[in-house]
Design a protein that fits this description.
With 480 residues, this protein is α/β, with parallel strands linked by helices. Helices cover 43% and strands 6% of the residues. The protein is elongated, with a radius of gyration of 33 Å.
């Protein structure tokens, strides 16, 4: 078929118009024709050239190689589906979070669309899909490509045709392959994985926990301490039902939990990586203040002026030991909950804490200014932080004993240990000089060797170099 302008180029307004006007109207600016001669072959050449151009016209390609390097056959798609596939497979979208629910899997994109995959046909909340739910939108084509990538070993060797609902034609539907695999896929693709309300077995945060985490990032308190009166259930509220008279913060909290657009805007303003970085900065400050308060109390007998600051005002040795153990346990839990973000911050806090405790193998009351020889009649070892947390020989007698800090460090990828290998080696040197159980020394030595190995700083094949506070993944992290 000819282009529209070429179809109309021979039309004239009237048959009685002067020939000069007609020629002038159609005279190219760059090559004026000879007015005295007419070439009868011109019309035939025009027709043949138009036919030749028409035969080469190709409105859209029949195949496309996506950014995941998988090649897809688009020949079975109609014009609308093919256009959506071309956009989706050549665009980068950002997943704010994903979750498994009783009805399937939900993927919240940064620009507000939410994708649902399950037993029913896939759906998306974007306007394009809502106007024509029989054809997959660009978001569905994109999400299926991302998931497809996780189940192939060599993407460049894979070729698949696409269905109108966005599915690549593979042996098993991707929703079936997702069963029990969402955690691993989220880690690989650098997506935040949330768990459904009341399901403590699933790694990640609930929607309400995520909102609380964002809100607490703007304050000095930890997420678990932020407005404990603000609790929400899975029962959906309308925007009007989210209003709490006289309490803007509670109103915004409800809106963020129940309104996808508000939640997406909050996530865009305070991304998961930023929340994780802020959280571990708070933990770093908490441990620093806790140990400084303990040292000052041992030397002067002065308690913290403001017991509400990070550390809770604990100064008695048994309180400090219990608080430090809780902090390490919380760090370890947050490494998992916040994956794939925060690992670098977690490594920094843990290694700093290990070195700080390793430096305190002494009687904390030695040389004090208030004449105390003991707190409550305990001996020197019973008030020695290092002995209580690291140096107790009872550790070798119990194979299941907690290895202070080391258990948490062992959950991190070696690349993050590599970032703090010098600090880790410094702590090891102090611990080797001091009394330490053999079990503890062996585990610490293994961590140091892992951190200092040449391979520790180099990610393996298919893994992503750590950036910011993310965990290693298998694909390039999308820019926000």
């Amino acid at each position: 078929m000819s282009t529209p302008t070429r179809q109309f180029h021979r039309l004239s307004i009237g048959q009685n118009m002067p020939a000069e006007s007609t020629r002038e109207a159609h005279t190219p600016l760059h090559d004026p024709p000879d007015e005295d001669e007419e070439d009868p072959s011109n019309e035939e050449e025009d027709d043949s050239s138009e036919s030749e151009m028409d035969s080469h016209e190709d409105p859209s390609p029949s195949t496309i190689t996506s950014q995941s390097r998988i090649t897809y056959d688009l020949s079975s798609l109609d014009a609308e589906a093919r256009a959506n596939a071309l956009v989706g497979l050549s665009t980068q979208f950002e997943v704010v979070d994903c979750r498994a629910s009783h009805s399937g899997y939900d993927f919240q994109l940064l620009e507000r669309p939410q994708i649902h995959l399950g037993q029913n046909p896939p759906s998306c909340t974007c306007l394009a899909f809502q106007s024509n739910p029989q054809v997959a939108c660009q978001h569905l084509f994109w999400i299926f490509d991302q998931l497809h990538l996780c189940f192939v070993s060599t993407p460049t060797a894979v070729k698949a045709s696409l269905s109108h609902d966005g599915h690549p034609r593979v042996n098993q539907r991707l929703e079936e392959l997702l069963a029990g695999q969402l955690d691993a896929i989220a880690d690989r693709l650098n997506w935040q994985c949330l768990r459904i309300e009341g399901d403590g077995s699933h790694r990640g945060m609930t929607r309400a926990e995520k909102v609380r985490d964002i809100f607490s990032a703007f304050s000095k308190v930890f997420p678990e301490d932020f407005r404990q009166d603000l609790t929400e259930t899975t029962e959906r509220r309308t925007p009007e039902q989210c209003v709490v008279q006289g309490d803007l913060e509670a109103t915004m909290f409800r809106l963020a939990v129940h309104d996808d657009s508000v939640f997406s805007s909050l996530c865009k303003a305070m991304p998961s990586g930023a929340c994780a970085s802020i959280y571990f900065d708070k933990v770093q400050e908490q441990t620093r203040r806790l140990l400084a308060d303990f040292d000052r109390y041992c030397m002067t007998g002065r308690r913290p002026v403001d017991p509400s600051h990070p550390g809770g005002g604990a100064v008695e040795v048994n309180e400090v030991v219990a608080q430090l153990r809780r902090i390490v346990s919380s760090i370890q839990a947050n490494i998992t909950t916040r994956a794939p973000y925060g690992s670098e911050g977690a490594a920094k806090v843990l290694v700093s804490l290990l070195d700080a405790v390793a430096s305190r193998n002494k009687d904390p009351l030695e040389g004090n200014q208030w004449g105390r020889t003991s707190f409550h009649g305990e001996d020197e070892d019973q008030r020695n932080l290092y002995h209580l947390l690291i140096g107790s020989e009872a550790m070798d007698l119990n194979a299941d004993a907690e290895l202070f800090v080391l258990d948490a460090l062992g959950t991190l990828h070696p690349s993050y240990l590599h970032l703090y290998r010098k600090e880790l080696r410094s702590a090891q040197s102090k611990i080797e000089v001091n009394r330490a159980p053999r079990t503890y020394l062996l585990h610490l030595g293994q961590l140091v060797r892992t951190a200092e190995s040449n391979a520790a700083g180099q990610m393996g094949s298919g893994q992503k170099r750590p950036a910011g506070n993310g965990n290693p993944g298998s694909v390039t992290k999308r820019n926000r």
